[in-house]
Specification:
Ubiquitin-like (UB roll); 3 domains; seven-stranded mixed beta sheet
Length: 729
């Protein structure tokens, strides 16, 4: 079979695929985190006095003296040079959705006695602690104008520094927060750090009140991010301008075989892909990213990796770095890594399942049920806090998963719907319902499953519900609705802040109850009340069933079908007030995010629409015209032999109608793009995009896909789904 990708023969791809092989390496532990520098390692390179001062800076925020800062920076510089890094960079996450950095050399001009100026490597403490990259070209949503564009990076010492290796070039990357001259957060890290501070501030007093003593000195959120992605041979990009411009296919007729045989999930990983995965894992492990799991996903050419959980702040940085590494390593293997939520229609999309929990300073997981969860009061109180957070703020959490890409994914092909609910599983749900009735004596211990006389399977407390957006999975909650291309810091910011607010309010309620009854009965009564109050947000059914929508309406749950509807939540002060009260965001920062994400949505769909129209007009329509010419030539040859084919006449008519549909769709797209760009309000622009432009694009896509099914394979200029999903991977 000749692939429809110009001069490239499908055999070329197969040959290249077979030639790829992985390099055998030592045990992962021998090189894990070799390219990272943590604050703990830095402290061991300092003398006792500087080490103590530095620890107070990291753990308590006590400012370092200039002398100590210089000593810390000197050790950082030495470590970087020892590892071949001649440049350093303040690495931060602006609201573009991708990481940013500017590389500066350690090279300076020093004074050598008797020699005057001479080159020397220098790195003073001020350059480590702060930077001043121009903020004029980063989105701010109105937080600053071009003539007030100064921005500042500030080192986050709790997230390890790392060395990014690009071929022979190595650069020291210093994780940083990013703020404006006025102190407004221009990034995703700053609000996350504030939310984690709020969690650490509000949870310990609640649990100490539950215990009746100082049982918890500190807490921190943990996170493990499962990352899904697609891989296709890079050569296909030459004939797919939509994937190049939009990161996803804007057209493509369904292949005869997709995922209907259910033969991809956990299936054997092809040799070429295993070689890529091995190289990617090597890079990730050297960067201290604890990759634990790899496997094929449900869709053809789809894969997943999952790390061991880490502190949430570090986990978010590591996930951003993971996406970067996957893309760069794929390029080295002549592959393209597609991180879009829905790169191919009709098959599973990609998510980023956020496995979230909270641990104490001593390492105790507060969401661990234990052997008797119905009487594990800290666990029950933690559940109550999570239920309260989701019940109150499902609308704002919905905002954090809203994007043009996720709009295509949510609610189909094993992705959860945009209506946010909590799933507990049969056993845990039964326990919660019994507690609502005042019964705390239920033992939810599960018997192992007997497979044969000698083989048993260990049974968990909860089943899996792949349709649910927020599921309890044994000792953590899995936020399954987050999109694969997004920075997890945004949903984790709101989730941690919502739980912090819930903890504060539960503490006040518990204090009031303890004034009239003993502590333990007060805790039980509070838990029972909260379970009853938040019952509406718990849903154990099939989230794909039509009954969910009716249930959501009956229960008063937020129903926000797409990104414009979700983003409108940010304009409601009653919905976002808790973020301001907890000092996670200022009101100005919330307003800015509405405008930034609205503009991103508009620009994303606008680019897709323009790309699809160009593709239809300049590639697909000419292919249809060429096919008509071919049919005409065939008809002429047949006429010379006194043969007439009604089928050929019918095909010409079909192709002619498709050409008219392509032309009409392109004209409609041009008109609607103009209409969207000239609305007086950004919300109105989003509505034009969502309600008018997107449906027109879908109609045009249908015509393009129809043309693909009509035009001869040798004439079709675009790589087809069957090629991209099955050749080379």
């Amino acid at each position: 079979m000749q692939a429809s990708v110009g001069a490239l023969d499908s055999r070329d791809i197969a040959t290249r695929a077979a030639s790829e092989s992985a390099t055998l390496r030592d045990a992962t532990s021998s090189y894990f985190a070799k390219l990272t520098l943590s604050w703990k390692t830095i402290s061991t390179r300092l003398d006792a006095e500087d080490s103590d001062a530095f620890k107070q800076f990291v753990l308590q925020g006590v400012p370092m003296s200039k002398q100590t800062a210089n000593h810390v920076a000197e050790q950082v510089k030495r470590w970087a040079l020892e590892n071949g890094a001649m440049f350093y960079s303040h690495w931060f996450h602006p609201l573009t959705g991708i990481p940013a950095d500017k590389h500066d050399s350690f090279l300076s001009r020093g004074v050598e006695p008797g020699q005057g100026l001479a080159p020397i490597e220098q790195f003073p403490g001020s350059r480590l602690l702060w930077g001043e990259p121009d903020a004029s070209s980063f989105p701010s949503g109105g937080l600053r104008a071009t003539h007030t564009a100064r921005g500042y990076t500030a080192w986050d010492p709790r997230s390890p520094m790392f060395i990014r290796a690009d071929g022979a070039t190595r650069t020291l990357c210093i994780p940083c927060a990013y703020v404006s001259w006025a102190g407004h957060a221009l990034d995703t890290k700053t609000p996350l750090l504030r939310a984690l501070d709020a969690l650490a501030r509000e949870l310990p007093p609640l649990f100490n009140m539950v215990a009746g003593r100082e049982a918890v000195k500190g807490v921190f959120a943990t996170l493990g991010t499962e990352q899904e992605y697609f891989l296709i041979d890079k050569s296909f990009l030459a004939s797919r301008p939509d994937i190049v411009m939009a990161g996803r296919s804007l057209c493509g007729a369904p292949p005869p075989r997709g995922q209907q045989l259910e033969d991809h999930y956990f299936g054997p990983i092809p040799a070429r892909i295993q070689a890529f995965i091995a190289d990617a894992e090597y890079e990730l492990n050297r960067l201290g990213i604890p990759v634990k799991t790899r496997h094929r996903e449900v869709a053809p050419a789809q894969f997943e990796l999952a790390p061991i959980f880490e502190e949430a702040n570090v986990a978010c940085d590591h996930n951003v770095l993971t996406m970067d590494v996957l893309s760069r390593v794929a390029d080295r293997h002549n592959l393209a890594c597609l991180l879009h939520e829905k790169p191919f229609a009709g098959i599973n999309g990609s998510g980023k399942h956020n496995n979230w929990s909270v641990s104490t300073e001593a390492g105790e997981n507060l969401l661990e049920p234990g052997n008797d969860p119905a009487n594990n009061l800290p666990f029950l109180v933690m559940l109550a806090a999570v239920f309260t957070a989701m019940h109150r703020h499902a609308d704002v959490l919905r905002v954090t998963i809203a994007s043009a890409g996720n709009d295509h994914r949510l609610g189909a092909n094993e992705a959860p719907p945009p209506i946010l609910t909590i799933y507990l599983g049969e056993a845990m749900d039964r326990m919660v319902r019994n507690i609502e009735a005042g019964n705390f004596a239920l033992d939810v211990h599960q018997e192992d499953i007997k497979v044969t006389a000698s083989i048993y399977a260990r049974k968990d407390l909860t089943d899996r519900n792949r349709t649910t957006p927020f599921a309890f999975t044994g000792n953590k909650f899995e936020f399954r609705a987050v999109g694969s291309s997004e920075n997890p810091a945004w949903p984790m910011t709101v989730l941690n802040a919502a739980v912090a607010e819930a903890a504060r309010d539960l503490r006040d309620r518990l204090a009031a109850k303890c004034e009239r009854m003993e502590r333990e009965p007060a805790v039980r009564e509070l838990v029972r009340e909260v379970f009853i109050e938040t019952r509406a947000v718990r849903y154990e059914g099939n989230n794909y069933g039509p009954e969910l929508l009716e249930e959501a309406k009956r229960r008063g749950l937020p129903i926000l079908k797409n990104t414009p509807a979700a983003l409108a939540t940010l304009q409601r002060n009653d919905a976002t007030r808790f973020l301001v009260d907890l000092e996670v965001f200022t009101q100005e920062e919330i307003d800015s995010r509405y405008h930034i994400y609205a503009e991103k949505y508009i620009k994303t769909i606008d680019i897709e629409a323009a790309t699809l129209a160009e593709l239809a007009r300049t590639i697909v329509s000419p292919a249809c015209e060429a096919q008509i010419v071919d049919i005409g030539n065939a008809s002429a040859a047949m006429a010379a032999a006194n043969v007439v084919s009604e089928a050929l006449v019918h095909r010409v008519g079909q192709l002619a109608r498709l050409i008219d549909q392509l032309d009409a769709g392109c004209r409609q797209i041009a008109e609607l793009r103009h209409k969207a760009h000239h609305q007086s309000d950004i919300g109105q622009s989003m509505n034009v995009i969502a309600d008018e432009l997107v449906p027109v694009c879908e109609t045009l896509r249908h015509a393009v896909d129809g043309a693909e099914e009509m035009v001869a394979d040798s004439r079709w200029p675009l790589a087809k789904y069957r090629e991209m999903l099955f050749l080379g991977v």
